[in-house]
Amino acid sequence: MRIDKFLWSIRFYKTRTIATEEIKKNRVSIGASVVKSSKEVKEGDVIKIRKNQIDYKIKVIQIPKSRLGAKLVPLHIKDVTDQEQYELLKMRKMSQDYYRNRGEGRPTKKDRRDMDGYVENDVDSDFTDWDDFFGETGDGPENED
N or C: which terminus of the chain has fewer CB atoms within 10 Å of its end residue's CB? Predict the structure, then answer.
């Protein structure tokens, strides 16, 4: 089976076209050599795939006849990716904004509530003397025209 079809059939990529594009970008290799989309995959091959800034390694156990259901994938491949790669992925996900990039679009209702709570806690509601707040005492020289 061709490697692009294999990666699609084990659900590593959503479409075969995406798999082919990733192979053309040299993000997929068998052993130490970069491959073309037409490369035949054999049982026992170790495929190295660069996806989401992580180097995945999978070992081919069995070649599927066609696209598999998600529950059947472990019967055909074995994940041999280093554990530190998964730790890197976990750290990257934790460091990203969890639902929306800051500054993108209008704030959600949750964002507004968070901002309102922050502003209310920052400024005392009893505080009304703005001259004292800004450090102006009125004793200094003023510009008079």
Answer: C
Q: 65 near 72, Cβ under 8 Å? A: no
**Is residue 78 within 8 Å of residue 58, measured between CB atoms?**
yes
Both tokens of 141, joined, read 């020289």
DSSP type of residue 2: B
Distance, in Å, from the CA atom of 118 to the CA atom of 89, rounded to the nearest integer, reads: 31
Task: Judge contact between 73 and 10, C-beta under 8 A.
Answer: yes
For position 15, what pLDDT does the model report?
92
Phi, psi of 111 (to 5 degrees): -60, -45
Task: Give the global pTM.
Answer: 0.61
For residue 123, the 8-state DSSP code is: S
pLDDT of residue 47: 93
Residues 6+ apart with CB under 8 A from 24: 37
CB 23 within 8 A of CB 3: yes
CA dist 60 and 75 (Å) reads 10
Instruction: State the pLDDT at residue 10.
Output: 92
